[in-house]
Amino acid sequence: MTEPSASAKIEIAAPPERVYELITDLANLGAWNAECERAGWVGPVKEARPGARFRGSNRNGSRRWSTRCTVTAADSGRTFAYHVRAGGVLDVAIWRFDLTPTEDGCLVEQKTWDTRGALMRVVGGLATNVKDRVSHNTANMEKTLGNLKQAAERR
C-alpha cells in the first residue's frame, strides 16, 4: 500500500487487547474520537471482522454527515482497518489502527489514505467544511489518540 495521507502515533500504558477493545467498541467510539460522534454495526455481523459493515455519524462544528464503512482487517490486539464510503458507494478513505506491544503497553498508530476522486474532494469539502483534509485529519488523529490513551489508561 502507498504511504498514508495522514498518520499519528502514541504510546499507551495499557495492553494492546484493551486498546483494541476500545477501538472496536462502536457504541462508545464517540467518547474518545475527535470527529466521529457515534457508530453502529449494520447488517447481520455485529463484531469487528473482515466484511462487517458499520455506519459512522461525524461532525465538524455545525456540519454533520454520515458514512458507510466496511471492515477490511480485524486482528485482535494488532490491527483494525476499514474502508469508508459516502452513500455506501463513493470512495472516501481507508482508516487503519496498528497496535504494537511495548514493555509498558503498546504503540498505537492511526493512518488514513484519502481515496476520494476529484468530485468527492469538492463535495466532501463543502459538506464537512474541511478544505485541507490532510491537516485536519492529522490534528484530529492526534486528539483522538490522546483521548484513546486517557480512556485506555484509566480502565
Please provide a written account of the structure.
By secondary structure, this protein is of the alpha+beta class. The chain has one domain: START domain (Alpha-D-Glucose-1,6-Bisphosphate, Chain A, domain 4, 2-Layer Sandwich). Helices cover 27% and strands 43% of the residues. The chain contains three helices and seven strands; from the N terminus they run βαββββββαα. A seven-stranded antiparallel beta sheet has the order 1-7-6-5-4-3-2. β6 and β7 form a beta hairpin. α1 crosses α3. 30% of the residues are buried. The model has no long low-confidence stretch (mean pLDDT 94).
Supply the helix-strand structural class: alpha+beta
Q: Please name the fourth-level CATH homologous superfamily.
A: START domain
> What general form does the structure show?
globular
The number of domains is 1
Beta-strand percentage range:
35-45%
- Number of DSSP helices? 3
Instruction: Tell me the number of strands.
Output: 7
Order of helices and strands: EHEEEEEEHH
Task: State the helical fraction.
Answer: 25-40%
